[in-house]
Amino acid sequence: MAAVIETRDVRKSFDAVQVLRGISFALARGETLVVMGGSGSGKTVLLRCLAGLIKPDAGSIRVLGQPIETLPEEALLPIRRHLGYVFQGAALFDSLSVHENVAFPLREHASLGEAEIRIRVVHLLSLVGLDETVLRLLPSELSGGMRKRVGIARALAMEPGVMLFDEPTAGLDPTNSKLVAELITQVGSGACDTAIVVTHDLELTRTVATRVAVLIEGRFAALGPRDDVLNSDDPAVQAFLAGEAR
Q1: Segment 22-36, tens digit of pLDDT
Q2: CA 128, CA 27: separation in Å to the nearest integer?
Q3: Most exposed residue of 38, 183, 188, 191, measured as fewest CB within 10 angstroms of its CB?
């Protein structure tokens, strides 16, 4: 089976700091790969490279069979429509209501009337456990957990084949973290069954991952089935996981 996303020896530096030092992996349809790593380990940089938001310095990235590392912005747009990206802080437009935020990609990329857009927005919000009472609210009127859910609803708007989640439980209390983890699992059991989740949250990893990669000093110290990695006897992996379990 062809990989949905595949990287070979991806490298990225900022000034003199090497952030990614040779990342290679392949993501198959139906997998949820969780990339674990501490703060500043390069998890978000990797995710942004996969979405074409950052160009790697070296190496290759193929998304849905197409090499993207050298594509200009206009050529990346149709590929990005197959990727749903949930940013760490949800990245909602502060001056727009929940309805306007979720409707934004539909207005930009779909030929739909306003009545149909509203129906789609209400449906997308229902998928993340929110109802019509939030439509008129601004992001500042939402809790952290609700903002995350609105961000997921917006990312699902164009029915992507792959979801990319950047620290989806960061800043959330245990109850909301559990709700978001359950939501990621729910999304993965539907039409969008393939995902990459970057996190340092061990409980989230146990809940959603089919495979796990541990990113240490710009390289994957481990990559494999979830239980194999979480039970690894590699000293560096053990030390990282022990620190996250505290």
Answers
A1: 999 999 999 999 999
A2: 25
A3: 191
Check if the beta carbon of residue 169 is closer than 8 Å to that of residue 201: yes
Q: Which CATH number does the domain 5-82+162-245 belong to among 3.10.105.10, 3.60.15.10, 2.40.30.260, 3.40.50.300?
A: 3.40.50.300
Alpha-carbon gap, residue 182 to 152, rounded angstroms: 13
31-90 pLDDT tens trace:
999 999 888 888 999 999 999 999 999 999 999 889 998 888 889 888 888 899 988 877
The answer to whether the beta carbons of residues 195 and 163 sit under 8 Å apart is yes
Beta bridge partners of residue 97, listed in sequence order? none
Residue boundaries of the structural domains of the chain: 5-82+162-245, 94-159
Contact 61, 69 (CB under 8 A): yes
Predicted confidence (pLDDT) at residue 1 exceeds the cutoff of 80? no
Q: The whole model's pTM is what? A: 0.91
Let me know how many helices (H) and strands (E) the chain has, helices first. 9, 10
Amino acid code (one letter) for 91: A
